[in-house]
């Protein structure tokens, strides 16, 4: 019998890529998505997995689903992202606690729960971010994840299954919303449209989706104990100026399309960069794609998608 996997937020960017990987490995894949979620990222896979609609705050519905599925592994990816406010922060924290509670009630608890967070949780802390340093989050999105991590630190000894908190660098790749910088730059360059990079000297640790999924899978199979926080990051933070040049090279677009804004007076460029050492020591994971290769791969996938759509 195939191992059963539950992915919350499975219709999202990272969740859909993870779902495809799990299907390819022959796992029995169950996605829990909001009733309003679009399934467009799962085109071609719907018949090979099971989609369940539920609000993660709906305790009776979630309890019934988990009891019926009886998952072996759980990936908890569902969270608010852009535009999150205090109410969203509290809801995400409650949803994590409820999920853990209901999994703990199972007659046969899962072998592991892997939950995703962000290196943004480290906020203004020293670079490169390391798992043992104190978090200094600056946004409601980051605060919600830190609250969840703190809850797990206190609950870990009482849970009958291990939990891995995976702090992801800024993940990019095919299927990501074009509200995000890398796919937005690629799209506009492919269509010959002008674009402005507002903070070209900001630096970001950028991780291709294939590397992120590989890390999530490896950590779910690592048989860790208790609660473990692990960064999945490249350890390198190119500037957005450098990223724009790589997009121009990969698309062959006219460099005149891209305008790099001057740094605003009094504003210090920001940097998000995490150390990947722990992931490598625990499971041998390291990012396989550098940014140039990752952008090339993303551009190729977006061009292929455009040809199919046409």
UniProtKB/TrEMBL annotation:
It comes from Tardibacter chloracetimidivorans. Residues 5-222 form the NAD-dependent epimerase/dehydratase domain. Pathway: Bacterial outer membrane biogenesis; LPS O-antigen biosynthesis. Belongs to the NAD(P)-dependent epimerase/dehydratase family. This is NAD-dependent epimerase/dehydratase domain-containing protein. Signal peptide: none annotated. InterPro entries: Epimerase_deHydtase, NAD(P)-bd_dom_sf. It comes from the Bacteria.
């Amino acid at each position: 019998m195939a191992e059963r996997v539950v992915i919350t937020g499975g219709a999202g960017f990272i969740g859909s890529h993870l779902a495809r990987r799990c299907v390819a490995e022959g796992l029995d894949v169950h996605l829990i998505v909001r009733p309003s979620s679009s399934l467009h990222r799962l085109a071609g896979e719907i018949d090979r997995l099971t989609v369940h609609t539920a609000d993660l705050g709906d305790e009776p519905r979630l309890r019934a689903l988990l009891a019926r599925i009886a998952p072996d592994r759980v990936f908890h990816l569902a969270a608010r992202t852009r535009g999150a406010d205090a109410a969203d922060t509290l809801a995400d924290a409650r949803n994590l606690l409820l999920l853990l509670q209901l999994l703990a009630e199972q007659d046969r608890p899962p072998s592991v729960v892997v939950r995703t967070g962000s290196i943004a949780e480290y906020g203004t802390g020293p670079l490169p971010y390391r798992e043992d340093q104190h978090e200094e989050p600056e946004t409601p999105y980051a605060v919600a994840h830190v609250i969840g991590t703190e809850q797990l630190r206190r609950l870990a000894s009482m849970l009958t299954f291990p939990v891995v908190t995976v702090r992801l660098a800024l993940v990019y790749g095919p299927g990501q919303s074009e509200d995000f910088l890398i796919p937005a730059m690629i799209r506009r360059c492919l269509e010959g449209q002008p674009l402005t990079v507002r903070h070209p000297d900001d630096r970001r640790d950028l991780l291709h989706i294939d590397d992120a999924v590989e890390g999530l899978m490896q950590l779910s199979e690592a048989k860790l104990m208790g609660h473990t926080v692990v960064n999945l990051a490249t350890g390198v933070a190119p500037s957005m100026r450098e990223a724009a040049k790589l997009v121009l090279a990969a698309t062959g677009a006219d460099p005149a399309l891209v305008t790099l804004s001057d740094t605003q007076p009094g504003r210090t460029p920001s940097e998000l960069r995490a150390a990947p050492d722990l992931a490598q020591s625990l499971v041998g994971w390291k990012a396989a794609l550098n940014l140039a290769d990752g952008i090339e791969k993303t551009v190729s996938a977006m061009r292929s998608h455009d040809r199919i759509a046409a």
